[in-house]
Design goal:
Elements lengths: L8 E4 L2 E5 L4 E6 L3 E4 L4 H13 L7 E5 L11 H7 L4 E4 L1 H6 L5 H19 L18 E2 L5 E5 L2 E7 L8 E5 L4 E5 L4 E3 L4 E3 L6 H12 L5 E4 L4 E3 L2 H24 L4 H13 L7 H18 L10
Parallel strand pairs: 4-5, 5-6, 6-7, 11-14
Antiparallel strand pairs: 1-2, 2-3, 3-4, 8-9, 9-10, 10-11, 12-13, 14-15
Helix pairs in contact: 1-2, 5-6, 7-8
Length: 309
Amino acid sequence: MSDKYVKPIVITPGFYQLGTPAYPAYLSVGEYAMLIEGGIGATSALIVKQLQELSVTPEKIKYIALTHTHPDHIGGVIFWKKLWPQVKVIANTTCAKMLKSEELPKEFTKLDGIISEILLIKGEINEWPAVIENPVFDVDMVLGEGDKIDLGRGISWSVLDTPGHSPCHTSYYNRSQGIVIIGDATGLYDPTRDIFWPNYFDSLELYCDSIRKLYSLHGEYGALSHNGVIKGDVRNHFRKAMQATEAFHNGMFKRVANGEDPKKVTLETAKWVYTFTNMQPFEVIFGLTRLMFRRSQAATGKPDLFKLP
């Protein structure tokens, strides 16, 4: 596969952004190295080239830490594990169980192909990625809230359970460097327009709880699963994410309360979302918007749902 080359970005000494802006992965280097995010099939070869540019040898890579099991966040794992069989995949208990689902390989193959097609149309890759028959997603290390990942040379990551976007969503925190791996815990953020699409696909209540948990951390860098790194006042990002979530929830429900058809409301909301993200087909965006309307219904009336400390 010959990707259009994107250079790795130095975030802090020993911490790098790899992949593409829309589908980044991250690299933390101590005595050992750890990739964070499973990526997509279409950027797996690119990330291998970026690691070579950084002179990170396969022997140095010890872990791949997953944020969650959505197909666009695990696609690179099957490629990298084939290249580096010694690497251990890290995820939480819920994630490990979900990755054993018989339906996951079919879902992965379908969505990974759709994403590859979109990237080809955009000109971000030049060729279809290689196809791996019968993909298997095995977790080698099950970690959860409060566990540590020690990479040596003073580089340590804490594991944080941050469900809501998905039941298995995990974030990671490097206190010494002030880095928070946010993942998709605050939804999809477009920094060019400073706009959010909240993504509480599993639970609105848990999604807000996770934003509160991340807000309590001291962070100077917030690494997102899409569109790169927030630098500076990361707490302000969480504050804006919560405000955007409240506005998204209330916006739909006020329209329905005023007599509009819920189907019309969710369709028009999905069309608005599609104006700033076309990373997936519109039918997927629409389906997810309808799902979040149901999640909003389930959380209606919960006290202090959007309150920050």
